[in-house]
Specification:
This protein is mainly alpha-helical. The protein has one domain. It is 65% helix and 6% strand. The protein contains 6 helices and 4 strands, in the order ααβββααβαα.
Length: 166
C-alpha cells in the first residue's frame, strides 16, 4: 500500500470516532471549533515548525499541499480537536491531566507516523511543548468563547429553518 494513504486512514478513523462519540445535535458546534482550533491552527503550526526545521511531512504522494503538509492532516486534526473539546473536563485537576494526556497521545501518534516515514520531527521535547500549548490554547478559547465571541454568532444560527405548513 502506498504510504500517502495512511493519513486518509487516520482521517477516516478520527471522523468515525467523531460521528460515533459526539451526539448528532452537537456536530455543528464541535466541528466548527475543531476546524478553527484544530485544522487551521495545525496549518499554522506545521508551516512555522517546517520553516524552523522541526517537522517535515514525507511520502505525501498526490495529497501534498504545496509540498509542506498532507492535505488530510488538517481534516484529521479538526475531528481530533472536536472530540478533545467535547470530552474536556470541567474540574481543574482533571483539566491539566487531560491536556497532558492529550499531548502525550499526540506525540505517540507522531512517533507512529514517523515510523511509517510519513512524518518526521527532530525534537520530541519541542513537539510535546507545542502539543501542550496547543491543547491548552484550544481549551482556553473554547471555555472563554461566550466572552470573546469567536464562533458564538455562527453557532447561534439554526441548521435548518423550521417548516411552516400554514
Amino acid at each position: 500500500m502506498d504510504k500517502s494513504y495512511l493519513y486518509i486512514i487516520l482521517t477516516a478513523i478520527t471522523g468515525f470516532g467523531f460521528l460515533l462519540l459526539i451526539p448528532k445535535h452537537q456536530y455543528k458546534r464541535y466541528f466548527l471549533y475543531g476546524v478553527v482550533l484544530g485544522g487551521l491552527v495545525d496549518i499554522a503550526i506545521v508551516l512555522t515548525l517546517t520553516l524552523l526545521g522541526q517537522v517535515r511531512y514525507a511520502n505525501m504522494g498526490h495529497f501534498s499541499a504545496f509540498g509542506l503538509i498532507h492535505a488530510f492532516a488538517p481534516v484529521s486534526w479538526s475531528f481530533t480537536f472536536a472530540m478533545f473539546l467535547y470530552f474536556l473536563p470541567k474540574r481543574t485537576t482533571f483539566f491539566w491531566l487531560y491536556i497532558f494526556a492529550f499531548a502525550v497521545l499526540n506525540l505517540k501518534v507522531a512517533t507512529i507516523m514517523q515510523s511509517f516515514d510519513t512524518y518526521g520531527y527532530s525534537n520530541a521535547f519541542v513537539l510535546t511543548i507545542v502539543f501542550l500549548l496547543w491543547g491548552y490554547g484550544a481549551a482556553y478559547v473554547y471555555r472563554r468563547d461566550p466572552q470573546i465571541k469567536l464562533l458564538h454568532p455562527v453557532l447561534q444560527k439554526p441548521l435548518k429553518k423550521p417548516d411552516n405548513d400554514d
